[in-house]
Amino acid sequence: MRTSASRSAASPQEHTRRVAAATFVGTAIEWYDFNIYGAAAALIFAPQFFPNINPVAATLAAFGTFAVGFLARPIGGIVFGHFGDRLGRKQTLVVSLMLMGIGTFLIALLPTYAQIGIAAPILLVVLRFVQGLGVGGEWGGAVLMAMEHAPEGQRGYYSSFPQMGLPAGTLLSNLVFLGVSLSLGQEQFAAWGWRIPFVLSAVLVVVALVVRLRLAESPEFARTRQRGRVRRLPALDVLRNNPGTVILGMGITLAPSGLGYLLSVYLLSYGTGTVHVPQVTMLLTITAGSVVYLVVAYLTGRVSDRVGAVQIFTVASVLSVLVPFAVFGLMDTGAVPAVLLAMLAMGLVLGLLVAVQAIIVSRAFTTDVRYTGASMSYQFGAVLGGGLTPLLAAAILGATGSSMWVAAYIAGLALLSGIAVWFLPREAGTETDPGASLTGGAGDEPVRDGAPA
């Protein structure tokens, strides 16, 4: 492991590239952890942890445990945002990664309902909550590390790297699930093989920790701390001074999150359970969609600083209103080429949306409250747009019998995101007005470097 001296010896450009790579790798591993749970919820958890209820109710219960992770994410965003704005971005990233890894590894060891009864689903919910806390703190820190290290004129590009970790994590989780299921066969995979992807998480987390510990703190946060501009209660300041910005940031998050979990979770369950596409076929087509998602996100990040993040997001939002109807129309044919085309279309719109989402939301907040404000916006929006999508989609399909109503729900989320992006502040600047309170109470003294949290 390199020392602080060796880090400082690196050129600014080299360190910026190192930060981009580290945020990409770490975020990919965090989302690998988060998404293998989603795949397991779609394929395994209903019979393993909820065996005594009918299949539809068991599926809803399994997706309910998936949603628990999203309910924990805003709490993680607020807690880690507080310390990220108080103590620094780097430390919180390391802790959030460890928390996520511990929760995922313990799921691998969890006994089933047949072994310990009702304690099994209860413990599953607890560990999913721990996962949610970890990933709730991950996004804001990774995005800000990448963006705040980036040179002017390239912030959109560098902030897209942690965003690319989302499809990379989905891709990796699907490849691991596919490889394990093909190697063991369906029966053994359902019995115990599903635990292997969770065990592998422990190895991946160690790799990500080594990479992240080599990074320097965000230079923007370091300057804010040196000036004594660190806030004592950033969450309170955000809610007091920027409630509209948080709500609009949540709105922007609805479409990327809803479409993302439609691709990575719900369509896997819908394709195998309703349309009766073979499990391997669904995993392969979702993997292909994730590749397109990753490539498009990279290319979009490359051009975002020239074309404009808001303009790209607006076009992607319009496409996102139309694409869900085409996706379910193709899926309902059950034909493999049509299913593949549906997944590729999903990957295209997701790549456009997600690549610019981070820079749009993050720059709406000043440096001194940016971790908290961006995390709250993203995580609360993810609860409404992503965490509830598999659950609501299954409920809508059960109530109406038509996938077009599910498509209409997703299109509604996209419409709201397309409206919100035009009202969000474009650039909040570096710090809050020097006359504003820095401690959560009028007239208090600003918190100085090194003050306790």
Automatic annotation (TrEMBL):
Per the database record, which ranges form the Major facilitator superfamily (MFS) profile domain?
Answer: 19-429
Parts of the chain that traverse the membrane:
21-46, 52-72, 93-114, 120-144, 165-184, 196-215, 246-268, 280-300, 312-331, 337-360, 380-399, 405-424
Q: Read off the InterPro entries from this record.
A: MFS (IPR011701), MFS_dom (IPR020846), MFS_trans_sf (IPR036259)
What CDD domains does the entry give? MFS_ShiA_like
Question: Keywords in UniProt for this one?
Answer: Cell membrane, Membrane, Transmembrane, Transmembrane helix, Transport
Identify its membrane topology class. Answer: Multi-pass membrane protein
Where is this protein localized, as stated in its record?
A: Cell membrane
Q: Which PROSITE patterns does the entry link to?
A: MFS
Where is the major localization of this protein?
Answer: membrane
Q: Where is this region: Disordered?
A: 431-453
The identity of this protein, by name, is MFS transporter
